[in-house]
Amino acid sequence: MSEVTDLKERRFYPAVDAIEELLRDPEEEILMVAIDGKCGSGKTRLAEFLSRKLDANVFHMDDFFLRPEQRTEERMQEVGGNVDYERFREEVLIPLFYGDPVVYRPFRCSIMGFRPDDEITIPPKRLNIIEGSYSQHPYFGNPYQLRIFMDIDEETRRQHIFERSGEEKLQDFIDKWIPKEDAYFERYNIKEKSDLVISWS
Q1: pLDDT per residue over 38-73, tens digit each?
Q2: In this predicted structure, what is the pLDDT of residue 69?
Q3: Predicted pLDDT of residue 115
Q4: Alpha-carbon radius of gyration of the chain
Q5: What is the C-alpha to C-alpha distance for residues 55 and 48, in angstroms, rounded to an integer?
Q6: CA-CA distance, 13 to 28, in Å (whole number)?
């Protein structure tokens, strides 16, 4: 790991400390950690870091975008409604709660649907990381032992999206997805209700 990577990931250690504290409790048989927060803030990177360091399963909210038939005008106007929270609860959270394997098909934006041979089976582990915006959606109740919010300033947020996705996608985020995301954070006080806030800077 390079020095630059070390410096960028140093801010992740409060999450490691908090999770290690939970892991020391023998009564917590199944641990679920949510990483919510702003796009471009490092949610996926934190999840991958925790997976390597603490041997965790990682589940991505991006695998549960709405299918085309779900994208009704009513649903797209719903705060926090642009994710398939119903399917995520049934296919991920409920099996995790019972310590069962998780079996699901990720939604592929490139084809706006599922690939028939794309089923994923994830064997149970004690530690499970739920990564992505809307992972703390109130529809789920509060199944998590730890809730993390990843924060980032607006200028850096846009720069990261541009570097990752290009100018056209950045404008799409600015016009559509960032306002929806911010409305969800504000309506449900996601940052304020999180147990730990990690800032990019």
Answers
A1: 988 889 999 999 999 999 999 999 999 999 999 999
A2: 92
A3: 84
A4: 17
A5: 10
A6: 21
Q: Which two tokens stand for residue 18?
A: 């908090």
Q: What is the pLDDT of residues 133-173, one digit of tens each?
A: 999 999 999 899 999 999 988 888 788 878 877 777 778 77
User: Judging by DSSP bridges, how do beta strands 146-151 and 31-37 pair with one another?
Assistant: parallel
| CA–CA gap between residue 191 and residue 38 (Å, rounded) | 10
Round to the nearest angstrom and report the end-to-end CA distance of the chain: 20
Looking only at Cα atoms, what is the longest distance across the chain? 49
